Amino acid sequence: MIDKRLKKNYHFLFLLMLAVIIMLTIFKDAIYILLLTIPFVYAWYNRLKLKLILIFSILSFIPSIVYFLIKDFNFLVYFVNLINEKQGFSVRDLMSNYLDNKYDPLTSSFIKLMILNIKVDESYYLYKKMISLSIVYLIVISGFHLMFIRKLVEFIFKKVPKISLAINLIIFFFYSFILNFSMSVFRVFLTMVFSKLTSRRCKGDYEFTAMAGVFCLFCFPSVCFSLSYALSYICTFGIIYVASLEIENFILEKVLMNIVAIILSLPFVLSINKEISLLAVINSFIFSYFFCFVFIYFFFFWYIWILWPIHDFITQLVFMIVNGFNVINIMVMFSFQNKWFNCAYYLLCFITIMITYKKIKYSW
Questions:
Q1: Alpha-carbon torsion 332, 338, 341, 346, what sign?
Q2: Which contacts qualify for 35-41: CB closer than 8 Å, 24 or more apart?
Q3: What is d(CA 316, CA 326) in angstroms, rounded to the nearest whole number?
Q4: Helix (H, G, I), strand (E, B), or coil: what is residue 47?
Q5: How many degrees, rounded to 5, is the angle at CA 257 between CA 252 and CA 259?
Q6: Could you tell me where the beta strands, DSSP code E, fall in 171-319?
Q7: Exposed site from 48, 63, 203, 209, fewest CB < 10 Å?
Q8: Which pLDDT tens digits describe the chain residue by residue (364 residues)?
Q9: What is the b/e burial string over 65-93, where b = at least 16 CB atoms within 10 angstroms of the residue's CB?
Q10: Rg (Cα) of the chain, in Å, rounded?
Q11: What is the pTM of this model?
Q12: What are the phi and psi torsion angles at 125 (to 5°)?
């Protein structure tokens, strides 16, 4: 008989399962600390049967084991390549060539960065500048960007929710196909699918997001060693955590989301770049909706070449603003970071969230 408490708290079990894989991704030699501490702390806090915790923890190793058997083979990428060979062309290549032919190199490279996740020439320069501002995630296609597209479709078809859901699923699946099933986009598609299939059993974003993450890892285990995948889910769960606090003040909620996202992503950022901006929270708050607007604009109007003056203006404006903020940016170098510190860091974050959640939620 399954513990009755599992029905109320199993979203944390999914989160734990995903956390084990994420920690294995980066901190392989410190994984034993995670396995020996988090399951016991969680079992003690929620009074769940320890064997349930151990079962989920053991299952979380399956993707990494499968990875060593099939290596980097990805079924979805294989599917995309097969379709492209059959039809004799790639939609992504067609879009890239169209942009190169219709716009100047700067605008073309920037649009490709924003909607195709292609980093070349001038766009790679912008990418490096965004890393310096500690907000590079804003120009990497993610659920944060796609959320606005989903909300727009839902608003247009608010009287027919089934049509709204169908259109969103078609858009995100086709977009995933164009991007060779990039996890950041495919994850949003899977989350919507799971939310529809399990809406009667699950009521929270934790469950849907975690299910999508675990599904991705079991089907495409090579991403279990991907920094971008781990970073994406760490930040997503942090944002969901803040949203679940039900803060009435909109500005305060967004500021907290940025702070939590930066705190949770800090070890990942430092593993890529040993420096971090002291103005990261301010930069994130200022640029978040600006870059979402830019993404949505190019997502819908990239092919309308007659709008090239507007395309060029937005591109020039982005480069000018990013360069300007880099002038006043203050960087701090962290040289003490290591795997043991990272493991303890995330363990502390996990325990803090568990212990303080109810107190924080009901104190607003």
A1: positive
A2: 37/347, 38/347, 38/350, 41/350, 41/351, 41/354
A3: 15
A4: coil
A5: 95
A6: 275-277
A7: 203
A8: 444 544 455 555 566 666 666 655 555 554 545 555 555 555 665 666 667 667 766 766 676 677 677 666 677 777 888 888 888 888 888 999 999 999 988 899 999 988 988 887 777 788 888 888 878 778 877 777 888 888 888 888 888 888 988 898 899 889 988 888 877 788 888 888 877 776 655 555 667 777 777 777 777 777 766 666 777 777 777 777 787 777 777 778 877 887 887 787 777 777 767 777 888 888 888 888 888 899 999 999 999 989 989 999 999 999 999 999 888 888 877 765 566 677 677 777 777 776 666 555 544 4
A9: ebbeeeeeebebeeebeeebeeeeebebe
A10: 21
A11: 0.78
A12: -60, -45
Cβ(126)–Cβ(322) under 8 Å?
yes
Decide: 23 and 60 in contact? Cβ < 8 Å. no
Which pair of tokens denotes residue 205? 């974003």
